[in-house]
Amino acid sequence: VDxxxxxxxxxxxxxxxxxxxxxxxxxxxxRTLLMGVSLKLDPGESLLxxxxxxxxxxxxxxxxxxxxxxxxxxxxxPSGLHTFFIAQRPYMCIGSLREQLLYPEAEEPDQNRDxxxxxxxxxxxxxxxxxxxxxxAAQDDDSAPxxxxxxxxxxxxxxxxxxxARLLLRRE
Length: 172
What we know:
The protein has helices spanning 57-64, 97-102, 111-123, 145-148, 150-153, 156-170, and strands at 2-5, 12-20, 32-41, 71-77. Helix 3 (111-123) packs across helix 6. It folds into two domains: 2-77, no CATH class; 97-170, no CATH class. The protein is globular and about 50 Å long. It is built from six helices and four strands. By secondary structure, it is an alpha+beta fold. It holds the Pfam family ABC_tran. It comes from Polarella glacialis. Belongs to the ABC transporter superfamily. ABCD family. Peroxisomal fatty acyl CoA transporter (TC 3.A.1.203) subfamily. One of its GO terms (molecular function) is ATP hydrolysis activity. Residues 35-171 form the ABC transporter domain.
């Protein structure tokens, strides 16, 4: 799939996009997820992508973001357009709440930045995480290991909201 950043006319344009699964094991051919999808999305328009599991919805979003190259066709979006998406199962590193919010970057504690971190958590309804374990609980202090393993600490929906807080912090 050719993903380019050209032309300010449309917000998004897909031209005959076909998506396939990556090559798996020897002798297992790729499976076609989507075939011949074309659309034009103007600024201000919305698009709902819905359907059964396994038909390529997430793969299409990844292709629009430039992260899925298995297939054919062309995806055009304006240059300078920042594309964000939240995965169904977001990546959660083992570490402090600060590390989760700033992932993949690392940053020293900063009073001004801390307020932005707190505000992002409030916006997504996760302000209770500021109480326990807090922004900077780390494995070398009194925190229990399960406080730093976000897969065991949070529900899938909470992990998605934490990922959305990451997105809010990067919109600046």
